[in-house]
User: What shape does this take?
Amino acid sequence: MTRRWIGPVIVALLVAMASYYLALVATPRVLMAGAMRRIGNDAQVNHMVQVPLANAESRTVVRPSPDLAYSACAFDLSAGPLRLDVPVIPAVYWSLSAFDARTNNAFVRNNREAGNAPMSVVLALPGQPVPKGVETVRLDTAKGIALVRILVADRAEFPAIDAARHRSSCKTLN
Assistant: This one.
């Protein structure tokens, strides 16, 4: 009687292991690939995109806050390191974050931590040469998303915020 259960138990264990793998390893990559497609197509990789203010239908950024303005850069470090530059933005709070292809937060800094000064950081793969004197973050994956979040406390302030965020950039270093 117990021998009849060995086969089904082994199959159940294999299915459980495959489900575990998919849930913990593959799912973050699939979700990030979908987010990268929403943010930019091939023509917009390594290019900062200014996302319109959120409304009920907004989904360029996953679960956007209506109080935040977003600028995003879907990046690919295959062609070389990427430089992210964000000017001082006239808002109470703003931040720069970088996420790798597995949704891991590789870098984050807000305006208070930066002394309300412009931010500049280079994202690079291990072994890629980078300029001296520039803050560098090494990633294990070539693809990811950089995100600038800006608190828009008063919608009347948005034109000045929007003008400043349009000066943000992300570009491959050559």
Summary: The longest helix spans residues 3-39. The mean pLDDT is 85. The two ends are 69 Å apart (CA to CA). The chain is about 25% helix and 30% strand.
